[in-house]
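Curious: why these numbers?
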Amino acid sequence: MVFLMSIFEDAPIPLEINRILFENEKYFVHVFSFSSDCISVGKNTRVLEGENFGCEIFRRRTGGGAVYHRREVDVCFAFSFRFKGITIREIFSRVADILRQFILKEYSLGDERLVIRDNGDIFFNNIKICGISSARKRDFFLFEGCLFPINTQYRTYDPILNFSDVCFYMFPQKAENFLKLSISLFEFLTEKIPEEFYK
């Protein structure tokens, strides 16, 4: 099993690491972030040719839509495992529950305020705070995701703001808080993923 942490890495290097490990069917846990603002796009999401987003844009091996990553804002993670005899929906539910446990451990939100959607995304007060996407090779799975650190002191949301505006308006951006969260997530996943999927 490989445990990796790569913070402030040039894009798209962390996702290339995930892709190579997955395609070679290696078990791993990887917590990472990017050195500058960038956009990762799910493998099946259409991108208009010639569109200028003002930052680097690249594809993930996993599905899902486009995610705008910002330095010292969102923490990304990936892990792989082999599983048989369970539906995709059940797998997404198990993965989302692991992330819900981390969020509840890290923040005092109250379990009833976190909502897990069928696709594994986690919402707090109707704001998406964690998203996951997957890829598979037969019974071997790759999950990649992104956690947006939340400021629990911020209680009201301007309905005019879109998802990205809300995320980056309300979340802390101090480097020390970001690094602390990254390390905490790494420690949690390196313990929880083997315990959950490699019994």
